[in-house]
């Protein structure tokens, strides 16, 4: 899953594509490099990011979604938003999947909208909002809390008739680096939910807090951590650097034989 951010303040500058032309170029590049899908977002969810309005998010997002859907009609497009109105408009504009960092917690209409549209839904674990989540990174047992969260939220979705669900542990969201690694260490335990697992660690602080440097210098370490995620059961990697992620998947597949 290749990341395209239509934002001026996403934590990795290389992902920022603020106009339709540059977003189209990035989409073509990622698809040519082997991306199975593209994740397009117009609201920065980095810790402490500005809280832009629903209208601003919509105005940024829809022209890009429409343009990519037209230029790349076979591409699978995911929309990174926690707002049901934005998600529904993006689906109407040509997107296929909703990627909700809040797991329906920040918009009470999200689950009902997903049920009505019957589109795939990515359910992420987070506490609070991007503005407050770092203050809420407190856990007795992070794996058990994340597992219980997914069990509860997927039960709610199932009761509404939503069955096409992907889970994302939300590395870096209301989680300090050490907590994220503790969760990664037990990632395979989420397999008991029998749902596809998406992992997004690309160039995050949990990576360069260990190796040193910045997000711009974290590609090699990201590839290493992506490989570990694959070994522990990840089925989808959400990445800024598609070529390197595809190579990691190929090497992993050759090594394990499936």
Automatic annotation (TrEMBL):
Assigned EC number: 2.5.1.15
Enzyme type, top EC level: transferase
CDD domains from the UniProt entry: DHPS
Any one Pfam family match given in the protein's UniProt record, by short name: Pterin_bind
Cofactor(s) annotated in UniProt: Mg(2+)
Cellular component, GO annotation: cytosol
Positions of the Pterin-binding domain: 1-250
Keyword Magnesium: yes
GO MF terms, alphabetically ordered: dihydropteroate synthase activity; metal ion binding
Catalyzed reactions per annotation: (7,8-dihydropterin-6-yl)methyl diphosphate + 4-aminobenzoate = 7,8-dihydropteroate + diphosphate
PROSITE patterns per the UniProt record, alphabetical: DHPS_2, PTERIN_BINDING
Listed PANTHER family: FOLATE SYNTHESIS PROTEINS, FOLIC ACID SYNTHESIS PROTEIN FOL1
Name used for this protein in its record: dihydropteroate synthase
Biological source species: Mucilaginibacter ginsenosidivorans
Lineage of producing organism: Bacteria, Pseudomonadati, Bacteroidota, Sphingobacteriia, Sphingobacteriales
